[in-house]
Amino acid sequence: MVVDIPQTDPYANYCAHKAAIDGAITRVLDSGRYIMGDEVLSFEKEFAEYVGVNYAAGVASGTDALELALRACGVGDDSIVFTVSHTAVATVAAIERTGAEAILIDIDPDTYNMDANCLETAVSKSYNGRAIAIVPVHIYGHPADMESIRKIADNNELIVIEDCAQAHGASKDERGAGTWGHMSAFSFYPTKNLGALGDAGAVLTNDIDLVEKVYSLREYGWTDRYVSDIPGINSRMDPLQAAILRVKLASLDAENKQRRFHAERYSKIIDKSSVNVPYVQKGVQHVYHQYVIQTAKRDELREHLLGLGIGTGIHYPVPVHKQPAYKGRVGTSGSLIHTESVADRILSLPMYPELLSTEVDIVAEHIVNWAYL
Ligand SMILES: Cc1ncc(COP(=O)(O)O)c(C=O)c1O
Fold first, then answer.
1. Which of the listed residues 223, 249, 275 is the one where a domain comes to its end?
2. What spacing in Å lies between the alpha carbon of 281 and ligand 1's midpoint?
3. Domains in the chain, number
4. pLDDT (tens digit, 9 = 90+) per residue, 319-348?
5. pLDDT tens across 196-222, in order?
6. Which of 31, 159, 217, 224 could form a disulfide with 232 if both were Cys (CB 3.0 to 4.6 A apart)?
7. What lines the ligand 1 site, CB under 6 Å?
8. End-to-end CA distance of the chain
9. Is 42 a domain residue?
10. Whole domain around residue 183: which residue ranges?
11. Where are the beta strands (DSSP E) in 193-281?
């Protein structure tokens, strides 16, 4: 029997909150204030409180959040920033937009996150004072090894900016994603765990000077209106998106719990087969932005599921250092062996809070049956 189960479904999430979202949109329309204003200020306050830091600056996207955080920390032309190649291209694009060079670090093949040992080797080389920052990515919603990364950063006087685009609400040993770094950057792209109905992002920090720099950078470098002290850009958060995000923030923990419930159900069934299920480190509260399995016959399984009406994704099929735009331009830390080997094996299964348990069972059982064909 052919089913219709998409890999992700932001429309279902809108429907789940329709009345409250429509009310919030009407409130903004009726306010007469269409740039920044109280909705953005309130969202910034509520989201900073949720993550557990002092300040948030709403911006236009996750990519802008990363770029402005980096620029606030002094990253610019000739700087070097360490990050991973197993990420959305946006991570590296944001680094390059500041004028900096990205050095790409290999990943731990179990968690898919930055390998702290590889980072240690890379930072120990001499960069003539150009090395400024590290951008770990909490990929798929599993926090990176932040204790080790922060230690390496502190020992080498490097700034840490967490890419939290996939990790709203994730934690390790009760400490939340977005609280380990000097700054953190969030995306609210519609399919994210906290998703707007358009583009939006935010920069978070405990440091008042850094957040004030972002307030200025996101609005033409203004300190006073119409007076630019530094060169900035226009990357303000849209108040309509802020109002929508305020509605959805109230359900984020419950929706993350639902994602975990689905993930555990998938793992319990699929674990019986030869297909690898996600590894979760001790003490980690995974938020399963993606539920990613691994198999050597990934493309064959993907085709098989598609024929049954089951959507899947690949996050990501081509590591950044192999993308046409970045090939040969981005410095690497030598071997990216794990980054390259997982790219051919990973498959993201349907994962969103509104997914039904019966649908999870159908997908998982088809995978187990396929594995024994
Ligand atoms: C890891 C990561 N970093 C950065 C971004 C960029 O976010 P945005 O699409 O909001 O610019 C994304 C989202 O696509 C992402 O997944």
1. 249
2. 23
3. 2
4. 999 999 988 666 565 689 999 999 999 999
5. 999 999 999 999 999 999 999 999 999
6. 217
7. 61-63, 87-88, 90-91, 137, 163, 165-166, 187, 189, 199, 201
8. 18
9. yes
10. 11-249
11. 201-205, 222-224, 227-228
